[in-house]
Amino acid sequence: MYKLLSHNDLDGVGCGILAKLAFNDKVKIRYNSITALDREIEFFLENDQQKTFLFITDLSPNEKNEKRIQDYYQATGNVQLLDHHKTALHLNQYEWGKVLIEDEQGLTSATSLFYQYLVTHGLLEKTEAISEFVELVRQYDTWEWEKNGNFQAQRLNALFFLVSIEEFEEKMLDRLKTNNHFDFDEFEKKILSMEEEKIERYIRRKKRELVQTNLGEFYAGIVYAESYHSELGNELGKENVHLDYIAMMNMGSKKISFRTIHDHIDVSSIAAQYGGGGHQKAAGCSLTVEAYKQFVLETFHIEPIPEDAKRNRYNIKGTSFGTFYKNLEDEVFLLYTNNEIDWVIEKNRIPLEQIFSSFNEAEWFLKRNYQAWLVRDDVFVDYLMKEANKVRHSNKGM
């Protein structure tokens, strides 16, 4: 018999699907949150009669259970952990632990590592359909799908959340057993198109709720969101490149999801401060007392950042004659170049001391330090008219 303890996301459930393909009714599977894993490990170790082979995928135990698993392995040899998170690398010290973040194919996922293990040990036959499914899971979990334009991977994750885990497993198992290639059926394609429209509406609404705050050395965007964390975090990050990361608060599940688009930011280290973990660009943690204090209590009073104007014809970013911004304190900013090399920011008509080498550098500074946004054309034109009137009145008085 086999026992699989895995994560309750697409990558974790992907491992469960592979286990059922390999072992059929000889495997028992439990999908767990990060915090529930250790309870499941303890239950297994206290009740198993040392005949069951234990797989742990996409999750890692705490220090106490590491030692207990090591004892079980020394007594039976029946343990294999497969993970791809940086926070689990220390488990490579054990014979039963294999934690690999990247291989010759690129970034790994738990599903891709488990597939490789099952095929290598002769427990599962490699097929085109299974390989395509595993690759979709891997690309979504590592976010390579966006770089590669592989929207099939995004759609697979959307389908995962549209149905129950049991229904998703049943659909995938039937498809992978009978089809030569992996694809969605016509009904799924239709509901996925509807879901994509729903996600777009959800993201548009949440963009208006984002608040900005300074947390230690980082500038973070915070939003309350129950759904679509990967899509939302990525979109908010791309539209607010001056922010180091996005923190999405799910008050119902009492969890925080972290996302970043920047290569120099590691959100797994931020999540680890609150007992969580994950990847460099995607991580999460429980809403601990300290996390609640920092991300909720100390930011609840902050007003959301208005979005940059979208359909301007005159107040355009990067124009040499100037781009106009405003913030919640009614301070106004004009960003312009005076020699086509250096860029200057005027705050309330007074130039700041800093000089910038590009428009993007200047705007990054402006948004981080003053939480300003690009105003609409009508506000910009009104400002220009007032300035022109001031000049006109000044000339009349001369």
Tell me what the structure shows:
The structure is a single chain. The chain is of the alpha/beta class and 398 residues long. The protein has 14 helices and 18 strands. The strands form four sheets. The chain has a six-stranded mixed β-sheet with strand order 8-9-10-11-13-12. The protein has a five-stranded parallel β-sheet with strand order 2-1-3-4-5, with helices on both faces. The termini are far apart. The relative contact order is 0.07.
Oligomer: single chain
Structural class: alpha/beta
- Radius of gyration, whole Å: 26 Å
Helical segment count: 14
- Shape designation: elongated
SS elements, strand count: 18
Share of helix among residues? 40-55%
Distance between the termini: 96 Å
Low-confidence stretches: none
What fraction of residues sit in β-strands? 15-25%
Q: Give the averaged pLDDT, no decimals.
A: 93
Largest sheet: 6 strands, mixed
Strand neighbour order, sheet with most strands: 8-9-10-11-13-12
Structural key phrases:
398 residues; 18 strands; 44% helix; 5-stranded parallel beta sheet; 6-stranded mixed beta sheet; 20% strand; alpha/beta
